[in-house]
Specification:
- This protein is an alpha/beta fold.
- The chain folds into 2 domains: 49 residues, RecR Domain 1 (Helicase, Ruva Protein, domain 3, Orthogonal Bundle); 93 residues, Dna Topoisomerase Vi A Subunit, Chain: A, domain 2.
- The chain has 8 helices and 6 strands, in the order H-H-H-E-E-H-E-H-E-H-E-H-E-H.
Amino acid sequence: MAGIPVPLERVIKELTKLPGIGEKTATRLAFHLTRSQRNDVEGLANALLALREELYTCSICCALAGGDPCEMCSDPRRSDEVVCVVEEAADLAAVERSGGFRGRYHVLQGTLAPLDGVGPDDLRITELMRRIGEGKIRELIVATNPTAEGEATALYLAKLAKPLGVTVSRIAHGLPMGGDVEYADLATLGKALEGRRQM
């Protein structure tokens, strides 16, 4: 890049590898770092290195964790009978922030995507089935995204779990709280009608 020193250019190049960070944002962040205190920049660099060195995959739920097992799998106050199945660790964090779930989790680390070559063996389904086989789980709440891949994954999990006596439910999809019916897209409105419940 013209007019940008090589060390700064390297930082910009690395930042653009992050999702949602284009060259303009990366350049702004890199210049911000040049104005930051040395200890702030070192703190960021050390945190990024520690992310790779100190982050584990929980051997029980397959979530990202600071130790094994993770704090949610170690928490005796959580119910062993209900497991919320999510695609990625970020989805687990979102469900947890809602404060509405006190069971256990299972992170698939993706969804079935045959066109991309992602099959059941590429996900953490074997670990989930092992947990079901232990006999404590009574219900799976499948919280995959409402995409073709998410729906296919949900159906596949239901097909595996139901014969084992486990209730499989799907999170509701539809209008957000505070949303207006007139502005909803057709797919969202259709899902909202499909997922209606009695009052």
